[in-house]
Amino acid sequence: MKRREKWVTTVCPVARSTEVVGDKWTILILRELYMGATRFEEIQIQTEATPQMLATRLKSLEADGMVERHPYQKRPLRHEYRLTEKGKAFYPVIQTLRTWGETWCKSRGEEVAVRFTHRKCGHEVGLDYVCPVCGEYVERRDLDSVLSATFATEREKRREAFKAAKARVE
């Protein structure tokens, strides 16, 4: 069952797409899933979404067929989130946002946040969809990623801040 089917008032594919993925939090959740996060807490840490906001967006993504929940613990019941084929098919949009952001939303001298290497030939792909060395079109599953030191530090600081806040509450 699609959750917004009855609300569709246009045949415009852009408008329909933004009904599914048209907000910052949903895009950041998908980014984390593409980066390998599957558990609620890690997604929350890296997106900095409130638990309620994250739960709402994950339920919407599930209702729209972008993610599936899979139990990883029985007591208490906990789920991880995995991309469906539909969710995986959205990756080129994330790649395009990344390319645009690396090109237009950075300060001079800032390094690339994530470097991708083509697994098959071992060469860096840069911001393109085609390996500059072997000429193959590459998808996310064809690439290994390495975070820049700055981005890795930023992500680790979020984890540390989350743990500190959690410790204060307990």
TrEMBL record:
It comes from the Bacteria. This is Winged helix-turn-helix transcriptional regulator. Pfam families: HxlR (PF01638). InterPro entries: HTH_HxlR (IPR002577), WH-like_DNA-bd_sf (IPR036388), WH_DNA-bd_sf (IPR036390). Residues 12-109 form the HTH hxlR-type domain. The keyword Transcription applies. Keywords: DNA-binding, Transcription, Transcription regulation. Gene3D superfamilies: Winged helix-like DNA-binding domain superfamily/Winged helix DNA-binding domain. It comes from Paraburkholderia bengalensis.
